[in-house]
Write a structure and sequence with these properties.
alpha/beta, 10 helices, about 40% helix
Length: about 260
């Protein structure tokens, strides 16, 4: 569903080039949630932007449902939904108006758009504020509208960049339920987050980036076995060469296998 092949991005910064993403490769299957993790500046958002076709790779390529971002970026955009905390709402439009607007942008016929908005309104419980100006909505309500917006064209692939940033416990649960819905619907999902406790609950596999390179990849159990650590936090700190010692025995990790 998603194939990332040797993606590399170099930014020019004065007299010195910055290698932001360094030959990163991974794949995400239908119905799988892939956690792309790493510290600030690791290259997570840059990788997402290249997959979506918003940023041209220096080398390498990405593929979504057989379409290459280097050759068919518009086809990629039709097949990808994006959820990001940096995505705002048009403050003087209502959620209903915003959803109809994006349905039109994606070429969704009006009758289908009406049906999808009705379904998304029920899924995200938008009814109490569906016709209120977006400027009056709370942070959690705005995030629900953004989630609905990302699904209006029924994309097979979803990219999520720090989806729970700024949300309280209730708002975060909406995100958890949303990701479960995407998995059950057979979407291929990439989640970038610094919330490792949440990532453990949400993701099926992980790719850990550091200084633009993919350092580790696998399920949580596979990462435990390869690093001798028991939690993503410990694995993460080990990745950063922080003073953490993973002393769990192979026997305790083997218990997870059994």
């Amino acid at each position: 569903m998603i194939l990332v092949n040797d993606l590399t991005r170099i930014f020019e910064a004065g007299n010195e080039d910055v290698l932001a993403v360094d030959h990163v490769s991974f794949a995400v299957s239908q119905g799988e949630v892939y956690g792309l993790l790493g510290p600030n500046g690791a290259g997570k958002t840059t990788t997402l932007r290249m997959i979506l076709g918003l940023l041209k790779p220096t080398s390498g390529d990405a593929e979504v449902e057989g379409f290459l971002v280097s050759r068919q970026p518009d086809e990629i955009k039709r097949r990808v939904g994006l959820v990001s905390t940096s995505a705002g709402l048009y403050q003087w439009l209502t959620p209903r108006e915003i959803l109809f607007f994006f349905a039109d942008v994606y070429g969704v016929p009006k009758d289908q758009a009406t049906e999808r908005i009705a379904n998304l309104t029920q899924l995200f419980e938008l009814t109490p504020f569906l016709d209120r100006r977006s400027a009056t909505l709370s942070t959690g309500q705005k995030q629900r509208v953004n989630l609905a917006r990302s699904l209006i064209h029924n994309p097979p692939v979803m990219l999520m960049d720090e989806p729970t940033r700024g949300l309280d416990v209730v708002g975060s649960k909406v995100i958890f339920d949303y990701i479960d819905h995407l998995r059950d619907a057979g979407k291929a999902v990439i989640v970038c987050t610094h919330r490792l406790d949440e990532a453990e609950l949400l993701c099926d596999r992980f790719g850990l980036l550091h200084q633009g390179k993919k350092r580790y990849e696998g399920t949580l159990l596979e990462l435990k076995q390869s690093t001798m650590c028991q939690t993503l936090t410990q694995i993460f700190l080990q990745l950063l060469d922080a003073p953490v010692v993973c002393q769990e025995s192979r026997a305790s990790i083997q218990e997870d296998v059994n």
